[in-house]
Design brief:
single chain; 579 residues; alpha+beta; Butyryl-CoA Dehydrogenase, subunit A, domain 3; Butyryl-CoA Dehydrogenase, subunit A, domain 2; four-stranded mixed sheet; four-stranded antiparallel sheet; globular
Length: 579
């Protein structure tokens, strides 16, 4: 683990580049790599000839129980659990890559497996007591118990503070009452990680996490939801009516459920990212195959620039997403203990990259892509949910920006306090002022700032672009905090721009790390295409970041809000070109 306690992006927002968190690009040891490859080969053999079934299960809206049993027998519910309990003991890098292999074939199958390990039982792995693990690990590893994560409610989605499910403390148990909705694996799960409000000693309600099993009296499962995508996976409501939950079923500390939930989601996000990458890789295969065979105007459409542009951007998106997801997985495996921002960034970028890829792949296929006979429209429908669940991308953008700015704000508050007491402790006060002044000089000139010198020399132009944009990011955060102060939490347009800059810079940094590793391992000639990916991505990032910087203080935000308010007030579109 790095000796730093601060994550890469928090440091970056302060103008510092902590290269040690990204370089060298992570790899698996030979034994782990060989084991992983055997698992991937076995998954491909198992799922490779089932595509007709996937279409059938999508239409029916359910994966049959017989196939769930096959997944159990194959060991796919024990990927992250210890070998002593019948699992495969995968760390997050290997686990993410395994979900990628599953998602190349079918998203509903990947979601069924992923919801079990990424979030359903992740709380037990992270916060469970030895007694809890001993009681449930064997059953969870074999799939005798399938797990589900129960946080969302009718009135509480991304706002965990709005949870109304209540756990009232009794003599030797908690009495649980409430409703959870849209629970993945709800219809097939026997093990639920449930979040409910509990009353603290100060009489204030706080969130707590509980292990609840289906066989507890009062647990009821709703009917299958009829969904737009991932239709084969089970999604239901789960109801709790006077469920007696033993006190030894609390996960983590009582009243610390928010911490439990956030750690589960952070730790599991590389699984969702892996699934997105698997989908992108399959779509690229489909698009290149179709474009090579389909002829228009006497030539295969792969010869035409607009088709090449679409596929080229797919490749850049996939490579960049895979780089970010892999590094976040390595962070959660021990490279860094502060990676919540990076995990959220990887989730946002990977899910949106998959959506762009699915949309463009269908466009490459033309009318054929619109037909249900082919997989394009199925993958497009399956892809849409990823931008919503495990934290909507809109909320995650606010989280990314505000979490980073909170650290920047702490340093500004320290400086403010020093100004007030400068005559009481002039050495400390002038020291902070000098440090702040030095940072401003670095932001504006680049002189003395930490660089990206771990990048390969062949990537020096891209590394210099990253350094320049990092200085602008730090100045941007400083400007926003000075202008808005505590009101920054309400400036969602500004936070969106700040988050988009942070997303772009983190993904670019991960890509530069990966391409550097390829150059060092394979040589410049073999890594040439990857160097081109870095060059294209750096150009894209510079353009997007420059636009966001330009609009941070000169924009049409108030006009947009005014038009939205008019629509809200009238409840409709107010104009008609022809009356």
């Amino acid at each position: 683990m790095s000796d730093t306690t601060q994550g890469f992006m928090k440091s970056l927002c302060a103008g510092a580049i902590d290269q040690n968190l990204l370089f060298p690009f992570p790899t698996l040891g030979q034994d782990q790599s060989e084991t992983l490859q055997m698992a991937i080969d076995a998954i491909d053999a198992m799922l490779g000839d089932r595509h007709a079934d996937f279409f059938k299960w999508d239409a029916a809206g359910e994966i049959p129980k017989s196939f769930i049993e096959e997944l159990k027998q194959f060991g796919l519910f024990g990927l992250i659990l210890p070998e002593d309990n019948g699992g495969m003991d995968m760390a997050n890098m290997a686990y993410s890559r395994t979900l990628q292999a599953i998602a190349r074939h079918d998203a509903s199958v990947a979601i069924t497996v992923g919801a079990h390990s990424s979030i359903g039982m992740r709380g037990l792995k992270l916060f469970g007591t030895d007694a809890q693990k001993k009681k449930y690990y064997d059953k969870l590893a074999t799939g005798k118990m399938i797990a589900a994560f129960c946080l969302t409610e009718p009135g509480a989605g991304s706002d965990a503070a709005a949870v109304r499910t209540n756990a009232e403390e009794k003599d030797d148990h908690f009495l649980l009452n409430g409703t959870k909705i849209w629970i993945t694996n709800g219809g097939i799960a026997d093990f639920f990680t449930v979040f409910a409000k509990t009353q603290g000693a100060d009489k204030r309600e706080k969130l707590s996490a509980f292990i609840v099993t289906r066989d507890m009296p009062g647990v009821k499962i709703g009917p299958h939801e009829d969904k737009m995508g991932i239709r084969g996976s089970s999604t239901t409501s789960v109801y709790f009516e006077d469920v007696k939950v033993p006190k030894d079923h609390v996960l983590g500390d009582l009243h610390a459920g928010f911490k439990v939930a956030m750690n589960i989601l952070n730790s599991g996000r590389s699984g969702l990212g892996g699934g997105c990458i698997g989908g992108m890789k399959r779509l690229i295969e489909m698009s290149t195959d179709w474009a090579s065979q389909r002829e228009q105007f006497g030539s295969p459409i792969r010869k035409y620039g607009l088709i090449q542009q679409k596929v080229g951007h797919m490749v850049v998106d996939c490579y960049a997403a895979e780089s970010a997801v892999t590094l976040v997985a390595a962070m959660s495996d021990g490279r860094c203990d502060d990676y919540a921002i990076e995990a959220a960034i990887a989730k946002v970028f990977a899910t949106e990259a998959l959506w762009r890829t699915a949309d463009e792949a269908l466009q490459v296929a033309g009318g054929t892509g619109f037909m249900r006979e082919y997989a394009y429209e199925l993958i497009l429908r399956d892809s849409r949910i990823n931008r919503i669940f495990e934290g909507t991308n809109d909320i995650l953008r606010l989280f990314v920006a505000l979490t980073a700015l909170n650290d920047v704000g702490q340093s500004l508050r320290e400086m403010s306090r020093s100004l007030k007491g400068i005559f009481d402790d002039p050495i400390k006060g002038f020291g902070l002022l000098a440090d702040y002044g030095r940072k401003h000089v670095e932001w504006r000139t680049g002189y003395g700032a930490m660089g990206m010198d771990k990048c390969a020399l062949e990537l020096r132009p891209e590394a210099e672009a990253f350094e320049e944009l990092t200085r602008q990011l730090a100045a941007m955060g400083d400007f926003l905090l000075r202008k808005h102060g505590k009101k920054i939490v309400d400036m969602q347009f500004a936070m969106r721009r700040m988050a988009d800059v942070m997303i772009d810079l983190f993904v670019l940094a991960c890509t530069l790390s990966r391409v550097t590793a390829s150059i060092q391992l394979n040589g410049i000639e073999k890594a040439q295409s990857e160097i081109e990916i870095a060059q294209v991505l750096a150009g894209q990032v510079r353009g997007r970041v420059t636009r966001n910087f330009r609009k941070i203080d000169s924009n049409d935000d108030d006009l947009i809000k005014s038009l939205a308010d008019r629509a809200f007030d009238s409840g409709k579109y107010d104009w008609d070109a022809i009356r």
